[in-house]
Amino acid sequence: MKGNTRVARQSVGRAARKELPEMPVVDDKTIDFETIELLFFAYRDFVSDPDAILAKIGYGRAHHRVVYFVSRRPGMTVADLLAILQITKQSLARVLKELIDSGYIRQMAGPADRRQRRLYPTLAGRELALALSEPQSQRIARALEGFTPEMKEGVCKFLEGMSRSNKDGQAATEGAG
């Protein structure tokens, strides 16, 4: 009996591979597939240059995000960074430790509250953040070439709208700086 079940499963598997799977009916007017795809491709290309730089030193996108925000907001607390990245302490701990151990970030006690941990980029950390941001900035400049100030404002408004953290319209980055 066992052998028959196996044969039956194999023949069903072969038959299934010959026919296209049933697809749900989708009203293309309700889902903006074109914009979704453009965002996928834009993100893929936007992170490709920094990814290549990071790969050479054994780091990934999580390291990039930490170095970027610590460089943009020197003295930020670990709690602030957790809120911006919307990750857990556990997720941040390994990446932050690697960046501190490698000399890219310095962690210091807060001046008023010694329990508070403040983060600062070292010179090497700042240089890494700039090296990662430069190709992204150039990519943005090329994409915005020929845009009027009003058009650029529209792009920024769109991106801010995409990063909304809740339904009341408060931006995800508000209060983070």
UniProtKB/TrEMBL annotation:
Entry keyword annotation includes Protein transport: no
Regions that span the bilayer: none
Keywords: DNA-binding, Transcription, Transcription regulation
UniProt-listed GO biological process terms: response to stress
SMART domains (UniProt xref): HTH_MARR
Gene3D superfamilies attached to this UniProt entry: Winged helix-like DNA-binding domain superfamily/Winged helix DNA-binding domain
GO molecular function (one): DNA binding
SUPFAM superfamilies in the record: Winged helix' DNA-binding domain
Chain ranges of the HTH marR-type domain: 32-164
Protein name from the UniProt record: MarR family transcriptional regulator
Organism: Rhizobium daejeonense
